[in-house]
Amino acid sequence: MDTDVLVIGGGPGGSAVAAHLARRGHRVIVVERDVLPRPEGFGVLLTPRSLAALQQLELSDLESFHRVRHVRLTCDDRSTSTTWPSHPHFPPYAAVASRQVFDQSLIHAAVSEGATLLAGHEATDPIVERGFARGANVTSRDGRSFEVRASYTIVADGANSRFGRALGTYRKPTWPYAVAQRVTYRSPLHDASEVELMLDLRDRAGTPITGYGWMLPAGDGTVTVGVMMMSTSPSFRVVNPTHLLAQVIDDHRSRWHLDPEPINSGGGGRIPLGLSVGPSAGPTYLLVGDAVGAANPLSGAGIESALETGTIAAEVVDEALQSGSAAALQRYTRLLAERYGPFYKVGRLSNRVLGQPPMSPRIGRLVAKRRLAADAFVRLATNELRPGRAGIAELTYRIGHTATLIAPDA
């Protein structure tokens, strides 16, 4: 099989690339290991940044996702609620969607634009000729093997990208990463208009953990409970994420009226942060989403960055195909640095500062007690800073950015 662009992975980043390039008339093949729809029955949070990126894709199910207009921040016995930040380029609300429905909507958008989907197929290894990636060897579920040759390859197979490693990519081992765990319950509060973030995570010895828990009402009868733990936590290597999640569930079960038993077995994994994987571009290939470690180093959120890096990659590859020159791909690394570089460096440094035991509880109690602090916290965590403004979030970021000029990279 021959194509203009081969996309390895049909998640948010891969689907975004495929949809944008197919819309522009290019031949696109998406190789997705799973049979769709995936069985994952948990909810995902689509931040205002994510919704803005999805609007560009004209996603058919976008209006059906459950809107949430408030964020509740809880720490110990304190709690406050705030709205999503106002921003000139993003909607003033977020949404929660079933990951199964969300992924299916994204890949459907790509196929509707003309992309070819090979679901239940695995790209086993890249085809490399004279140092150039020229596609992949693919195996179907029934064991048949064949080649898919392409002018350009997009690596979008998620965290710990096996295909990316085969091309020589690696994660910076000293940079922070996160581990997430989640599970879904039925609850009568499934249609609540706010999500809750719990900022008081502690290990069994009472030591604060850098990270947070969450409650995501999906509007479909379910609430997804999860935890995000950063590797900068003092006890990171001895804390079991499953036990940490169980503690959050026990602490908040009655208030959210969760059923006694979950509706799925849950899941999770490691999340590379802050563009910690590279190189992000080769002579004929690009990495997007978790494959390039693009998740926000402050929040661990990866869907928005997957969609955005997918959109940027599509613009670069379109230019290469239009001009007939692969040199356009070398702009990709610079474009990522311009979009994320300063903010992600502040995020990585902040991640390490928050890892100091006295810091996380103090900040958690402050944002859970004062509305202005909560507003600034959410704006910073979601990277919705406003250029030219002098709000608390923007001033805090400038202080952090100044610190990164003299501090070593995190």
List the topology elements.
Blueprint (H helix, E strand, L loop, with lengths): L1 E7 L3 H12 L4 E5 L10 E4 L1 H10 L8 E3 L1 E6 L2 E6 L10 E5 H14 L3 E4 L1 E9 L2 E9 L4 E11 L6 H5 L3 E2 L5 E10 L7 E5 L12 E7 L4 E9 L10 H16 L10 E6 L4 E2 L6 E3 L15 H21 L7 H24 L4 H11 L1 H11 L10 H15 L4
Parallel strand pairs: 1-2, 1-11, 2-8, 5-14, 11-19
Antiparallel strand pairs: 3-7, 4-7, 5-6, 9-10, 10-11, 12-18, 13-16, 13-17, 14-15, 15-16
Helix pairs in contact: 1-3, 1-6, 2-6, 6-7, 7-10, 8-9, 9-10
Defining key terms:
410 residues, alpha/beta, FAD/NAD(P)-binding domain
Description:
- The chain is an alpha/beta fold and 410 residues long.
- Among the domains are: 2-43 and 99-173 and 272-341, FAD/NAD(P)-binding domain; 344-406, no CATH class.
- 34% of the residues lie in helices and 28% in strands.
- The chain has helices at residues 12-23, 48-57, 99-112, 162-166, 241-256, 303-323, 331-354, 359-369, 371-381, 392-406; strands at residues 2-8, 28-32, 43-46, 66-68, 70-75, 78-83, 94-98, 116-119, 121-129, 132-140, 145-155, 170-171, 177-186, 194-198, 211-217, 222-230, 267-272, 277-278, 285-287.
- The strands form four sheets. Strands 1, 2, 8, 9, 10, 11 and 19 form a seven-stranded mixed sheet that branches. A seven-stranded mixed sheet has the order 6-5-14-15-16-13-17, sandwiched between helices. Strands 3-7-4 form a three-stranded antiparallel sheet.
- α2 packs parallel to α6 and α8 (359-369) packs across α9 (371-381).
- The chain is globular and about 60 Å long.
- The model has no long low-confidence stretch (mean pLDDT 94).
